[in-house]
Amino acid sequence: MTTQADPGIRQLRADARRNRERILEAAAEVFAEQGADAQVDDVARRAGVGVGTVYRHFPNKDVLMGELVTRKFRSFADYAREALEEKDAWEAFSKLLHATAANMAENIALQDALRTTSAAFEYAEPARAEMNAVIDTLVKRAQRQGALRKDFKTDELGMLMGGLCASMSGPLAAQCDWRRHLEIMLDGLRAKPAARTRRAS
Amino acid sequence: MTTQADPGIRQLRADARRNRERILEAAAEVFAEQGADAQVDDVARRAGVGVGTVYRHFPNKDVLMGELVTRKFRSFADYAREALEEKDAWEAFSKLLHATAANMAENIALQDALRTTSAAFEYAEPARAEMNAVIDTLVKRAQRQGALRKDFKTDELGMLMGGLCASMSGPLAAQCDWRRHLEIMLDGLRAKPAARTRRAS
DNA sequence: TCAGAATATGAACCACGGTTCCGTTTGTCA
DNA sequence: TGACAAACGGAACCGTGGTTCATATTCTGA
């Protein structure tokens, strides 16, 4: 495919491997601080590397961001897997969302990437699908335990979390407390006490 | 200040007044279609006017967008005022959110402006404050009627709606149905049946 | 230790899009 | 109708930031 993303294809030279990692780390930091429109030059500088080197490892900015997003999805998936241990499915579910949100909160880049840079998002699609698969079992379990509203689809989670993250950055961020947002959202997701559902007019 | 934004200051020449309006209309269309990063040149073209003319009326792109956002806030405020007529405050409240969201849904520019272009957002701040004031009475009333959760602050609405709108555009838009998002959100806002949430099984 | 390939470097390139500028046109008013 | 200010037009300007490329450096295997 593209590059040395696959460790089996060909062994990178020692310094190259080191640089690649440095770049990824630097990118994570820079994007986290400045959001998706941070400059590639800054990433290079922070990594102590020339721009050209960045482009040797990643064909363009979108792929670089895509790689970061991919890693993030993977770590979320890991977290979800851990959450599966918990007996109380609702507890597990809400903790997962909380952790995810908290993580995003200090990582503006991801929000931006997920919401605006569609190329990066697409690049990370495989990882996202995998993550959603894990989360799906969590969701199903919470529904079976009667804690999560039955009509909720795991696929809808991206929409909700995307919205949550969106309000973290931008002009709205000022008057925004994401914990509060999440709280309201979770209340909306909780299964209702059986009777009296909303009757849309 | 800048220009003829204030109609009282000085009478615009007939053609200028006409053009100003045309530009605003064109801008609304173009931004609605292409989002906040539509080009000023496109706006000018659509308005059948030179770029220079656009800049004669609006010092820069941000102010142009700010003006659009301002108008939008005003129209939302109007809608909220109408909603005050309704006896059932919850009905009024949810209808307001629904109408607002629907409006945003076909107006990508606003979402973008509200979420990313902080300059435009600031420009429209007065209108926003006015709008919130109207909505606040609606909120208070819904709370007095016991339909809306007591701990909800009107100021939090921006955050929630911002999030809702965010998921309408961007890569997430695909798998996103904002009506669904709103439904969940409203469920989260509804006052709970008195006691603490209950553990169904 | 050496050759050659892999990798690094960063100045330069280029597209894009907001903004300016000045010659031209148009409305207004006497 | 004539004169002048107001308004218009749109080519040119300019900063920004992603991307490239020719040259220099470094690793690796023999």
What does this structure look like?
With 201 residues, chain A is an all-alpha fold. Chain A contains 10 helices and no strands. Chain A has helices at 14-34, 40-47, 51-57, 61-83, 89-105, 108-115, 118-123, 125-144, 156-166, 178-189. Chain A is elongated. The N and C termini of chain A lie far apart (53 Å). In chain A, 43% of the residues are buried. The model of chain A is unreliable at 1-8 and 195-201 (pLDDT under 50). At the A-B interface, α7, α9 and α10 of A face α7, α9 and α10 of B.
The overall pLDDT of chain A, averaged over residues, is 89
Cα shape of chain A: elongated
| H/I helix tally of chain A | 10
Report strand % of chain A. Answer: under 5%
Note the gap between the termini of chain A.
53 Å
The percent of residues in helical segments of chain A reads: 55-70%
- Biggest beta-sheet profile of chain A: none
Count the E strands of chain A.
0
Oligomeric description of these chains: homodimer
